[in-house]
Specification:
This protein is mostly beta strands. It is about 5% helix and about 50% strand. It is built from one helix and eleven strands; from the N terminus they run βββββββββαββ. Strands 2, 4, 5, 6, 9, 10 and 11 form a seven-stranded mixed beta sheet that branches. Strands 1-3-8-7 form a four-stranded antiparallel beta sheet, with no helix packed on it. β5 (about 45-50) and β6 (about 55-60) form a beta hairpin. The termini are far apart.
Length: about 120
């Protein structure tokens, strides 16, 4: 089983940048997708970005051009670089790895909170 631990959340001002990281406790290179999600209070989790093994990455419309998702396979690390943050970006962010076909399950971190002051 793989543990995912997010870090990098905190309080920043609107317009600032922040980088979130997600460290996996073991190799996930045989998994099929790596994602960042956000979840506003009282709402369902929403996928922010997803990358697949060939490196193709898709972003949700609201973060295109502002967020950059990268995966360092050798370090088992996912990174979400966020710039030009808006107050509506403030919420909890989760990383997730889709490993159902190879590990029999998908993995989720416990989340890191991003707060943004106007």
């Amino acid at each position: 089983q793989v543990q995912l631990v997010e870090s990098g959340g905190g309080l920043v001002q609107a317009g600032a940048s922040l980088t979130l990281s997600c460290a996996a406790s073991a190799d996930t290179s045989d998994c099929s997708g790596w994602s960042w999600y956000l979840q506003a209070q009282g709402a369902e989790r929403e996928r922010v970005a997803v990358t697949i093994p060939d490196g193709y990455t898709v972003y949700t419309e609201s973060v295109k051009g502002r967020f950059t998702f990268s995966r360092e396979e050798t370090k088992n690390t996912l990174t979400l670089q966020m710039k030009d943050l808006k107050t509506e970006d403030a919420t909890v962010y989760y990383c997730s790895v889709e490993c159902n076909r190879t590990h029999g399950m998908d993995y989720w971190g416990k989340g890191t909170r991003v707060a943004i002051s106007s």
